[in-house]
Amino acid sequence: MYCPNCGGTIHAGQYFCNRCGLATTPTTSATPTPPATSPSPALNATAPVAATVGAAQYSCNPQPSRVAKHLQILGIIWIVVSFLRLIPAVAMVFFGHMGFPFMAMPMRRFLMPILGAVGAYLAITAVVGILVGWGLIDRRPWARILAIVVGCLKLIDFPFGTALGIYTLFVLASPGGEEEYQRMARVS
Q1: Are 22 and 6 in contact (CB under 8 A)?
Q2: Contact in structure between 181 and 172 (CB atoms under 8 Å)
Q3: Helix, strand, or coil (residue 32)
Q4: DSSP letter for each residue of 83-143
Q5: pLDDT tens digits along 116-175
Q6: Residue 100 needs a FRET pair 20 to 30 A away by CA distance; which of 19, 48, 81, 141 works?
Q7: Is 116:98 a contact under the CB 8 Å cutoff?
């Protein structure tokens, strides 16, 4: 059976989709259940309680896990921040190779390699950030570990990188976060 919302696989007995958290009706097994026999009048007082407990299992609307709620947002933030980082990276690489015709030669020789190196560093970190965001949105198995590592490195990039690193660690490195992510991850 497949989820009508996201197309994810739903196995027999599941009450919600592991990818998007949509509540589903559990599929019944092929073996029929025996019909219920009416209890004796002395036991009749406990029958409604048992019936309401069984009905509560099917009527509850399970909430998606914390990882499922925040994963899409986290991936989008990684992509947006990384694209914004590409703008100064391209400018620095461009100015590092173009040179500064209005500056004296010793200063040009000093600034050109520095700007080129800083621009290359920014470009590489932007590409890695885009890769992290895409992997999280697509729920790739490798994306969680890469996001945690890059999120830890991003903590020193104050203030926006620090916030993104903290949010990444809050979502992905929380207790039980690995199991939740692995349940949602696509095997590629």
Answers
A1: yes
A2: yes
A3: coil
A4: HHHHHHHHHHHHHHHH--TTS-HHHHHHHHHHHHHHHHHHHHHHHHHHHHHHHHHTT-TTH
A5: 899 999 999 999 999 999 999 999 999 999 999 999 999 999 899 999 999 999 999 988
A6: 81
A7: no
